[in-house]
Specification:
Elements: E1 4-9, H1 15-27, E2 32-38, E3 42-43, H2 49-54, H3 59-62, E4 64-65, H4 66-73, E5 76-79, E6 82-86, E7 91-94, E8 97-98, E9 104-106, E10 109-112, E11 115-118, E12 123-124, H5 132-135, E13 137-138, H6 142-162, E14 166-171, H7 175-190, E15 204-210, H8 221-233, E16 237-240, E17 244-247, E18 251-254, E19 259-261, E20 264-267, E21 271-272, E22 291-292, E23 298-299, E24 302-307, E25 312-313, H9 326-344, E26 358-362, E27 368-373, E28 380-384, H10 385-404, H11 406-422
Parallel strand pairs: 1-2, 1-11, 2-5, 11-24, 13-20, 14-15, 14-20, 15-16, 22-25
Antiparallel strand pairs: 3-4, 6-7, 7-10, 8-9, 12-21, 17-18, 18-19, 23-24, 26-27, 27-28
The structure holds flavin-adenine dinucleotide.
Length: about 425
């Protein structure tokens, strides 16, 4: 039997962790051919996208180049965007590749696999709200974070020249919306240090619109209550229990006919699977564009195809689906890593067990809040302030450890800190 070809599509929180571990274990010693495909050449951990969007982190420092990383960690990297899967031929098809001037670089490509892992993540769900797709930025990819950054810089430039107000509206007060609102306030507080002398805090209006009666609706009342107190204090306008029925150039039109004005509009409500999944007619795709997997993360009816993270629908024993979270994608990558090794040795695969460690929400430098679960105590408990911030950052460190191993992750983080120390604290270009 020849060397098995393991193809992973999507190098995000789950896919890149899996590619790194399989690469180090099998790829470096040529026991398997591990190929990672991603549409982007750079990996940014998705929970940091809002920080890229506002310029608090610089992707040239925090971004990881798949090609370099793959060379050292035993996987090959191919830039491409999945457009079709043929489970009978055991091939996938990648879309044609264009350059920035929209010139064709490469036509469609076909890639063969022995085992395929779909790890394409999710996208924001506009629930078909009129105008949302055309007017809003969906903060779900590096490209969208960069688009927001450009609009923010244009807005700040105008604000500095004219002192007319700038209004930013965010639909969805889940973790993404709340973290973005807090981060934006931090930016407006800091821009004077960076030459925007004419801008004052009160020039920026941040509107956070949420259909549920509280922010962070998935989290315990104490966590959302505390986060709400922080947002109130920094002057974010909260519109709770408000449903957006249409998005126009001027802003968000609500069910009761009110217009919430917004120059920059962000849609951060709801998660669904990637749009391309709607075209994968040979696979079991749900109404929310996720692919159905069994307890061992095998796509139902296709034992050589696996899926993990936000693009997969795995129903737990409790009847609930695994939530779309970085910690879930990372745990799934760990289980799938063991399962693929077992499978190559002809052993049984284990069912995925989700461990909810709680949720932490960063409120920029103002703090973090969250609830932790686990062995420390029965049930969950509330954390905030420095401890919560420390635990929030440790999630990222754990992600880096899965990409590099603990020691190299520490060195990598130290190198990043040195580079950041040299550069301005805000990327305003
Ligand atoms: C702003 C923000 C803040 C968040 N904060 C938290 C948090 O604090 N805690 C938490 O647990 N979760 C958080 N999340 C959710 C978390 O980021 C996701 O649940 C997690 O990243 C999912 O991991 P994944 O591996 O499934 O996909 P992703 O990490 O989304 O990675 C998907 C990868 O697939 C690639 N891809 C997509 N389509 C294609 C295609 N057609 N072809 C090739 N490649 C493709 C993408 O480029 C990307 O690299 C946050 C999300 C956002 C947007």
């Amino acid at each position: 039997m020849g060397t098995k070809k393991i193809v992973i599509v999507g190098g995000g929180a789950g896919g890149l962790a899996l590619a790194s571990k399989l690469g180090r274990k099998l790829g470096l010693s040529a026991k398997a051919d591990v190929l990672l495909i991603d549409r982007s050449p750079i990996h940014i951990w998705k929970p940091k996208l809002h920080e890229v969007a506002v310029g608090v982190i610089d992707q040239s420092i925090e971004g990881l180049l798949y090609r370099d990383h793959g060379l050292k960690n035993g996987y090959r990297y191919l830039r491409g965007s999945l457009e079709a899967v043929d489970p009978d031929a055991k091939t996938i098809q990648l879309s044609p590749l264009y350059n920035d001037s929209n010139e064709l670089l490469m036509g469609q490509r076909t890639v063969e696999y022995d085992y395929l892992v779909l790890a394409l993540g999710g996208v924001s769900n506009s629930f078909k709200t009129p105008g949302a797709e055309s007017q809003c930025i969906f903060l779900d990819s590096l490209a969208s974070a960069e688009k927001f950054h450009t609009q923010l810089l244009d807005g700040l430039m105008l604000l500095n020249e004219t002192q007319q107000r700038l209004s930013i509206g965010i639909v969805g007060a889940g973790a993404t919306g709340v973290e973005l609102a807090a981060e934006l306030h931090h930016v407006i507080e800091s821009v004077r240090e960076f030459g925007y002398q004419n801008i004052a805090k009160h020039h920026l209006d941040i509107h956070l619109v949420e259909a549920a009666p509280k922010i962070l609706p998935q989290l315990p009342d104490r966590v959302s209550g505390r986060a709400q107190a922080v947002l109130d204090k920094i002057g974010v306008h909260l519109h709770l229990g408000v449903q957006v029925k249409e998005v126009t150039k001027e802003g968000f039109l609500t069910q009761d006919g009110t217009l919430i004005p917004a120059d920059i509009k962000v849609w951060a409500a709801g998660v669904k699977g990637p749009d391309v999944f709607a075209d994968l007619t040979k696979l079991p795709i749900t109404a929310r564009n996720q692919v159905e997997v069994d307890a061992c993360m095998r796509v139902k009816g296709h034992s050589d195809i696996y899926a993990l993270g936000d693009c997969a629908q795995l129903i737990l024993g409790s009847g609930k689906p695994v939530p779309p979270r970085a910690q879930a994608a990372s745990q799934m990558a760990d289980t799938l890593y063991k399962n693929i090794l077992n499978r190559l040795k002809g052993r049984d695969e284990a069912a995925f067990e989700y461990r909810d460690y709680g949720s932490l929400v960063s409120l920029s430098r103002f703090s973090a809040v969250g609830n932790l679960m686990g062995n420390l105590r029965q049930g969950d408990f509330f954390v905030e302030g420095h401890l919560a911030r420390f635990m929030y950052l440790s999630l990222y460190h754990r992600h880096l450890a899965s990409l590099f191993g603990w020691f190299s992750a520490l060195v990598y983080r130290f190198a990043q800190k040195l580079l950041r120390w040299q550069r301005p604290k805000l990327k305003l270009h």
